[in-house]
């Protein structure tokens, strides 16, 4: 019986490897180079803008390392992927690459030597980038100083470390294709869709992923937990979360370019995005992104639990503890009734970020602090100190329960278990 099971397992494995090999060959044979491009727009200056909008340096520059020399660790549920060296070094970087090679990496997710790239590099989004923009990005990267930093080998568990597994993943979840404008939409809408879906790769965070790390519908932007970071990227299609369809366009433009707008401030991973990327958007591109985001059809976030009851029940002990802690640590900045201070500290009363069904971000902010980005439009933002060493899990649960059930807020209480789970992870 055991021998038969081993033979069956071997046959299945051989079939999978054969299928993966066929996929590898079929994909490679069908790849194209994107065709000719207009040389007038392929400039290093334009490329510098595009790689900034794409936030490429966030991964390809390690903390304390040389710009674009790679080495930054990207934690995934399957192991650690290390960003590669994008400088024009002939041995370790892109020095021997051509514009066709670079296009193939963005559009097809394949390296110069034919290896399949891991989707921690967001080529499922970058495939929508035009050949012209890809060539401009490559032109810029050719101008940065070469750095002979060796690429760090990935540390992934088997079978995720194999090219065969990647080939199967791609056959299931990846289809290359440049963005095609929708004729029924305006030029601003199409430009915004191109930036949000492709270069900005917003769905990499704002779309839920399945057990294999793929998005079932990469463009729905309905929110999801960011793997390994313990932050929740709220739905951009729900007005109860981070949707902007009901807000003035100029408020969304301001949020993208400064990190703050009336009633909203970005924190956590989104603060890094604004800091390194969206604050540098041209006004035209910021308006385009806002136009597209405001047009997203409203939908319920796929990860949201059932709504809280109209009357939230909180024990007297938790209520008293939460009221005391809020008065001692929070009221000076956020106000006795959660009204906040305009231009400095956000209100907590009626704040969508406070009443999200998923409480991960609130716990992260209390434990690790809340730090908006310093931008040209908001160079001296007001931050919130961390309380990780000052408040225990029961204290954090109590004060957040107070905030979520006071001043008209009617969200479910925060449990001590939720805080313990977050504290056990990394709040960064």
Main beta sheet strand tally, sense and closure: 3 strands, antiparallel
Number of helices: 17
Estimate the global geometry from the Cα principal axes.
globular
Proportion of residues in β-strands: under 5%
Please give the radius of gyration in angstroms: 24 Å
* Whole-number total of structural domains: 3
SS elements, strand count: 7
**What is the helix content?**
40-55%
The low-confidence runs, each spanning 5 or more residues with pLDDT under 50, are 1-27
Cα-to-Cα separation, first versus last residue: 51 Å
Structure, described:
The chain has 428 residues and is mostly helical. 41% of the residues lie in helices and 5% in strands. It is built from 17 helices and 7 strands. The protein has helices at residues 2-29, 44-53, 57-60, 99-108, 123-126, 131-141, 163-173, 187-199, 203-206, 249-258, 268-276, 283-294, 316-329, 331-334, 360-368, 393-404, 416-424; strands at 73-76, 79-82, 155-156, 224-226, 231-233, 260-261, 264-265. A hairpin with a 2-residue loop joins strand 6 (260-261) and strand 7. Helix 8 (187-199) packs across helix 12.
Protein traits:
428 residues; mainly alpha; Cytochrome Bc1 Complex, Chain D, domain 2; three-stranded antiparallel sheet; two-stranded antiparallel ribbon; 41% helix; disordered N terminus
């Amino acid at each position: 019986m055991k021998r038969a099971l081993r033979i069956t397992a071997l046959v299945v494995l051989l079939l999978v490897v054969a299928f993966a090999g066929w996929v590898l060959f079929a994909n490679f044979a069908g790849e194209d180079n994107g065709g000719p491009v207009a040389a007038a727009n392929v400039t290093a200056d334009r490329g510098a803008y595009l790689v900034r909008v794409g936030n490429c340096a966030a991964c390809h520059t390690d903390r304390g390392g040389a710009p674009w020399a790679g080495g930054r660790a990207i934690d995934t549920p399957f192991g650690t992927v290390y960003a590669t060296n994008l400088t024009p070094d002939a041995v370790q970087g892109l020095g021997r690459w051509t514009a066709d090679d670079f296009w193939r990496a963005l559009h097809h997710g394949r390296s110069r030597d034919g290896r399949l790239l891991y989707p921690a590099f967001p080529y499922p989004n970058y495939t929508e980038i035009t050949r012209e923009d890809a060539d401009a990005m490559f032109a810029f990267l050719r101008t940065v100083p070469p750095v002979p930093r060796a690429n760090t080998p990935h540390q992934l568990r088997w079978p995720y470390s194999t090219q065969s597994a990647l080939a199967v993943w791609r056959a299931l979840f990846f289809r290359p294709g440049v963005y095609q404008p929708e004729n029924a939409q305006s030029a601003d809408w199409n430009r915004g869709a191109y930036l949000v879906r492709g270069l900005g790769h917003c769905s990499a965070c704002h779309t839920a992923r399945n057990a294999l790390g793929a998005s079932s519908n990469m463009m729905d932007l309905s929110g999801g937990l960011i793997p390994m970071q313990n932050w929740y990227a709220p739905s951009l299609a729900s007005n109860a979360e981070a949707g902007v369809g009901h807000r003035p366009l100029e408020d969304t433009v301001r949020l993208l370019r400064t990190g703050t707008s009336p009633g909203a401030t970005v924190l956590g991973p989104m603060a890094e995005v604004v800091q390194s990327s969206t604050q540098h958007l041209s006004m035209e591109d910021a308006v385009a992104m806002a136009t597209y985001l405001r047009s997203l059809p409203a939908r319920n976030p796929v990860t949201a639990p059932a709504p809280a009851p109209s009357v939230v029940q909180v024990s007297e002990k938790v209520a008293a503890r939460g009221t005391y802690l809020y008065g001692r640590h929070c009221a000076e900045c956020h106000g006795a009734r959660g009204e906040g201070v305009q231009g400095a500290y956000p209100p907590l009363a009626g704040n969508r970020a406070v009443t999200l069904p998923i409480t991960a971000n609130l716990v992260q902010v209390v434990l690790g602090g809340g730090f908006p980005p310093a931008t040209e439009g908001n160079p001296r933002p007001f931050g919130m100190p961390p309380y990780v060493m000052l408040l225990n899990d029961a204290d954090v649960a109590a004060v957040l329960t107070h905030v979520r059930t006071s001043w008209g807020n009617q969200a479910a209480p925060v449990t001590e278990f939720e805080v313990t789970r977050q504290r056990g992870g990394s709040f960064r």
